[in-house]
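Project outcomes to date are best conveyed with an example. Our students and postdoctoral researchers have been running inverse folding experiments weekly, and each run begins with a structure described purely in tokens. The record below, which covers 86 residues, was selected by the lab manager from last quarter's runs and is presented without edits.
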């Protein structure tokens, strides 16, 4: 297992671009952090072990509701397929 973890860490350090992933956990705090499992980047076992995955932030619209004093914030449900980038 440790060789697989080392290989996964090495792969993560060299994978730039866009990837499709699956939301496996949402944070209960107000920051909206997610745990996203990305096939081919993280080992299969990590899909059921969110604590192994790094935190991810959703890319939200920058200007939604800014002019009227209201804002907007949303993030995907667990099980949703999302696009990720490094």
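After processing, the design step wrote out the following sequence:
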């Amino acid at each position: 297992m440790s060789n697989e973890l080392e290989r996964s860490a090495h792969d993560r350090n060299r994978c730039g671009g866009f990837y499709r992933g699956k939301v496996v956990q949402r944070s209960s705090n107000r920051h909206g952090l997610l745990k996203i499992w990305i096939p081919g980047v993280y080992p299969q076992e990590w899909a059921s072990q969110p604590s192994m995955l790094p935190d991810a932030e959703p890319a939200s619209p920058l200007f939604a509701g800014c002019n009227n004093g209201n804002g907007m914030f949303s993030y995907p449900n667990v099980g949703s397929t999302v696009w990720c980038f490094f």
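The helical segments are 2-13. Residues 2-13 form the longest helix (12 residues). The training component of this project remains on track.
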